[in-house]
Amino acid sequence: MIALIAEKPSVAKDIARIIGATQRNDGYLSGNGYMVTWAFGHLIQLAMPEAYGVANFRKESLPILPPDFQLIPRQVKAEKGYKADPGVLKQLKVIKEVFDKCDRIIVATDAGREGELIFRYIFHYLNCRKPFVRLWISSLTDKAIREGLDNLQPGERYDNLYLSAKSRSEADWLIGINATQALSVAAGQGVFSLGRVQTPTLMMICSRYLENKHFVPAKFWQLKAATTSGEISFTAQSTAKWEQQPEAIAALQRVKDAGQLAVKSVERKEANQEPPLLYDLTTLQKEANTKLNFSADKTLSIAQSLYEKKVMSYPRTGSRYISEDVFDEMPERVALLGQYPRFAGYAAGLDGAALNRRSVNDSKVTDHHALIITENLPGELSKDERAVYELVAGRMLEAFSGKCVKDVTIAILSAGDTDFTVKGSVMKVAGWRTVFGEQETGGDEEDASLPPLQEGEGLPISNVELLEKQTKPKPLHTESSLLAAMENAGKELEDAELKASLKDAGIGTPATRAAIIETLFTRQYIVREKKNLVPTDKGLAVYGIVKDKKIADVEMTGMWETALAKIEAGSMDADTFRKGIEVYATQITAELLSVQLSVATGETCPCPKCNNGLILFYPKVAKCSNVDCTLTIFRNKCDKQLTDKQIVELVTKRKTGLIKGFKGKNGKAFDASLVLDEQFNVGFLFPEKKAKPKK
């Protein structure tokens, strides 16, 4: 008997159908010599500090450096602390029974770092010793699954991938737990979450916001001259920019006095624009944010859905290239789009043509190739799914199309010792730009329509004006620009040597960046204002205290990503990396314990249980600031969200006024007061029913 484990039920069912395991059982499918089971993403996690006998949020406990990490089932919030998720426990029991009955295991979790970690953590937690092989595929089409099953890879081939994933998981624990607890202890109130990638990302948002907010625009002046040659009128701007208005006015007068523009030089050249490369996940997320206003998380979710619907390749890819063998299939994929209404005409024009090879490079394909459509045309898709599918399909057509060719003319004109410049272009071959019919955008340098100009030619000035302008700050980050900054973390460094060493280092990975941004929203560190990402007061407070600390070091985080890639490649030892992280965690803990942090907390009141702490308010609970006190009041009571004011009343008076709109288990609404009993448990007090008048 052979076991097969997938990352989620839907994928398991697809594979089970292909291998003939069609008998349904509780938590698995069976048949034809196979037992097919599944996870629900990460079923196993690293144990929290209390598992190692460490008291949380105590100065004397920090730093927390477990000698060996313990694995536990995924936890969920309970009335008091956390407990193992019952659904996870049930499925782990099923997986164990399946593994025990089988001779070997086929690993069919997602073919990437996190997919490998999901399986290995389950495997080690269950103390399984069965041999396993790996299904490594880049799409979920029947053809890809069958080919993958015919070419199963030895499990040990992915040991380094697992070590890289395990190192990432443990590093995030060591830095996140120690940094969060150290800053929270130093603050003396509330919990301030910090993280290995989360905090440098917050730094990028806050520093850009403050730079923008404190930017003082400087005025400058330019001249704009209008002229005509033959039947064509056009304008040209001065190459000079004057910081003082009187100097600009003087130049304006000299140009007027000259009365005409002399053509100083004319440069004509043919400009070739190669098509863009195929998408990796990050470039797709950037484009979807710019064009569709989708968050990075939403785009990833839609791309995953399209992957599971078998119409798009594996989304969590960091490569923008495909290999030679995949390129061999591209004429068929292009021809397929001849049946897709939006691209039918263009795809038909590419049929039989030599496809552009710019995106073909075996050496630049990592675990997975760039995003492409599969051999399956989509059926019913939601509006958002169709929009993302068309981005990927359209980019595929662009990437394999011919270059865009333009005739570009750049002329320099002169009058009264001031030079003016103008640029014009004529499209000769639209090439790849035909797919979406998009034009370039270029601001001040927008191409003009120019007549044929000759050096030495004189042109009459029909008008010349003084333009008052001002310098502009860098715009606030959008998700698109933030993703680019995370991807290119090393590119804005001033140190040339460090910049070179971090040339290809980003922070986070294509697969994790969306989740990191969402974490900042969840922590209430940032909010969206239209498309911009803006820090909250809480986010700015954290930024102010950690901006010059090691935890905020973007370059360090970029170097870790490089180190994790080296572990995956087998060129760095995972234990060496772990020791370095432990040293770093010790350093940041010491740094953060010494800081002082002040954040406005709004409503607060003394704790009635211990009389030592203050009640602190969080999105889901109110709890005592004293770590030894267990008083916790959950905001959600019978589908009613309690306000800060109601909780203060409950804590100080032991009873609230009548609160309307609770919902019982039967779905019926009821009104009641809340009371805090002697054991500090919250209960209901119902209003007395008015006696019915006697008839």
Topology:
Layout: E1 2-6, H1 9-19, E2 23-25, E3 28-31, E4 34-38, E5 44-46, E6 71-73, E7 75-77, E8 82-84, H2 86-101, E9 104-108, H3 113-125, E10 132-134, H4 142-150, E11 153-154, H5 159-187, H6 198-213, E12 219-229, E13 232-238, H7 245-258, E14 260-273, H8 281-292, H9 296-308, H10 324-327, H11 330-336, H12 344-350, H13 383-399, E15 404-415, E16 418-429, E17 458-470, H14 479-487, H15 496-501, H16 513-522, E18 526-529, E19 532-535, H17 537-546, H18 554-569, H19 574-593, E20 615-617, E21 621-624, E22 632-634, E23 636-637, E24 640-641, H20 644-653, E25 659-663, E26 669-676, E27 682-685
Parallel strand pairs: 1-4, 1-9, 9-10
Antiparallel strand pairs: 2-3, 3-4, 5-6, 7-8, 10-11, 12-13, 12-17, 13-16, 14-15, 14-17, 15-16, 18-19, 20-21, 21-22, 23-24, 25-26, 26-27
Helix pairs in contact: 3-5, 5-18, 5-19, 8-9, 8-13, 8-14, 9-13, 9-16
